[in-house]
Amino acid sequence: MLAFIISMMQSYEKSHGVRPQLVYLNQKHLIQLLEECPWLQGMEDRPALGFRIVLISEKELPHPRVIWIPPLRRQYQIKRNMAEVETPCYDGPYCAAVRH
Q1: What SS3 class is residue 98?
Q2: Residues 6+ apart with CB under 8 A from 21
Q3: Contact, 49 vs 2, CB < 8 A?
Q4: Torsional class of 44: left (φ above 0), alpha (ψ -120 to 50), beta (otherwise)
Q5: φ, ψ (nearest 5 deg) of residue 31
Q6: pLDDT, tens digit, 9 for 90 and up, residues 48-97
Q7: Which one of 4, 21, 58, 92 counts the least CB within 10 Å of its CB?
């Protein structure tokens, strides 16, 4: 899953000229990512990934997506997403479960 995410990010960057900062995943994608990369589970051992993971329901997001948010809008969007947090998907700063 991590290789797939990196591939999506590289493709997006090549097409749009900017590196995406958000990766939208559903619960199944997140579980697969954490199974492949167990080091993401430990907060003190987690390196900076260079992107944030936003968890969205499988019904609304059948496939992973990457996006880039312009700097001024990004602060508002992240704050808005964080205000909608229901429960974190795991202990870590890279993931927020967004109510949808």
Answers
A1: strand
A2: 50, 51, 52, 67, 68, 69, 74
A3: no
A4: alpha
A5: -60, -45
A6: 678 888 889 999 999 999 998 877 655 556 666 655 544 444 444 444 44
A7: 58
